[in-house]
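Sharing a chain and its predicted structure for anyone who wants a worked example. Both blocks are below, sequence first, tokens second.
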Amino acid sequence: MFDVALFLSNLKTKNIARKIKYIQSLSSTNTVIYEMLMNNEINIKDVLIAEQQTDGRGRRGDKWFSSKNKSLTFSFILSSEELSINKLSLLVGISIITGIQKVANIRFKLKWPNDIMYKNKKLGGVLIEKKRAHYIIGIGLNVNDFIFDPSIKSRACSIHSITKNKISRELIMAEIFNSYEEMANKDLSQVIKIWESFCNHMNTIVKFHHSNKIVSAEFSGLNKQGNAIMNINDNKKIFNSGIIEL
């Protein structure tokens, strides 16, 4: 069971995640937190965490698998006026990498825009949805998981599967928010440099899924706006969405 008091005792933020709502089981933290916001049951910058999601979602509508009492599945809400979607997407990925490193002393990598990777296996992901004037940020991380669904077994990993040790989910989540608030005021140019230092496919050939097409492309980093630069048939093109396959 997630220890909310332990999480809050390790949280150093002034604004974000100061209030947390804990629910044993729900459909999707992204879905429920927005419903709670509309019903005045939760505020911007509060957090909703669930031990179990029955309908967790990933990008492209993929199902997100999680393990009760072992994974981290949580969401928070920000005003869309606070920052751009590009900066937010990069910041969240960086914060997760930095937060985990502080607790578990493992340096994970990022797959554009914010999949958390270790040796080309996925530890977690981020789903950001915009609704009205809000961003709903959902995060799913495999922390102490050791059994994976057969459909993702060959492509998934957890902190436990790497370290062979049980890691505190409360400390991981607290350090993610600590890292986020530390970096939130950085300029986009600084955020881009940090993100590129964590990227695991800089200047390499990848399969890129975009507009129902799959093409071979060289990932050349990010432009000044934080969009992906893809070299396709010796032509550099800019994308703000799409899926990279390594």
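Comments welcome. The chain has six helices and twelve strands.
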